[in-house]
Amino acid sequence: MEKIKLKKEEYQGYKIYFYEDKFDEICKKILNKEFKEIIKLKDTKRNFVSVIEIDNKKYVYKEPRNEYRIPQRKLMTLFKKGEVLTTLVNVNNLINMGFDEFIKPLGAVVLRNKGMICFSFLLMEYCKGKENRNYLEAIIEVMKKIHKAGYYHGDFNPGNFLIENGKVRILDTQCKKMYFGNYRAHYDMITMKYDSYAEMIYPYKKNIFYYFAYFIKRYKRLKFIEKIGALKKRLRDKGWKI
């Protein structure tokens, strides 16, 4: 299948990335506040997500605020494409490979200051699906196919999979490529089993990458590590730059 071509336009100091011209125009309307907000799905210091309507059509709008709120992450955007552009490119490439389960990212908008991202948003298609734990085995089968293609989710839990008309739909992932053996595939499955689906029959052979992923997962669940993380979150919410 022919590779889809990413397009870019500068507009009012922002960079708009898209594959279809109509979504360039939709992103411009969002920047110009020419939309109706239907419902806020999430509004925290980390993320903002809402359903919006433009020209009688619904979309999902997302701002990954942590990327430019946390200093070390913001600094790293000097060398990276950033979350919204990475998501746009990676997920569309996988859709083009035949993985039509993904909720499609339609456009990405990025604003940089001194080379670092200071604001961004992702425009996605609207999905009417809902979380449904009766489809956990179907979700795992879909994820196994994605792992086989060399990619991983990164936050593999039931809340990031919707069921629409009996079909699994995937969201909230940058779907990055795996480079360190199948460590990331194991980490995805360990996350699902130990955080959400204890009855899951583990689908992969347990190799050195499994044991490393398991060690990292257990380390992050140590009480003092969780307390440090919670403290950092509270301090960030108070304005500390950590």
List the helices and strands and how they pair.
Layout: E1 7-11, E2 14-18, H1 21-31, E3 36-43, E4 47-54, E5 57-64, H2 66-69, H3 71-76, H4 83-96, E6 105-113, E7 116-125, H5 136-148, E8 161-164, E9 167-170, H6 183-195, H7 208-220, H8 223-237
Antiparallel strand pairs: 1-2, 2-6, 3-4, 4-5, 5-7, 6-7, 8-9
SSE arrangement, N to C:
EEHEEEHHHEEHEEHHH
Distance between the termini: 45 Å
| Overall strand count | 9
Oligomer: single chain
Structurally, the number of domains stands at 2
Structural category is alpha+beta
CATH class value of the largest domain: Alpha Beta
Number of helices, where a helix is a run of at least 4 consecutive DSSP H or I residues: 8
Name the overall outline.
globular
CATH topology of the largest domain, anyone?
Phosphorylase Kinase, domain 1
CATH architecture of the largest domain: 2-Layer Sandwich
What is the averaged pLDDT score? Answer: 93
> Unreliable segments (pLDDT under 50, ≥5 consecutive)?
none
Rounded to an integer in angstroms, the radius of gyration calculated over CA atoms is: 19 Å
* Helicity, as a percent range: 25-40%
Biggest sheet layout: 7 strands, antiparallel
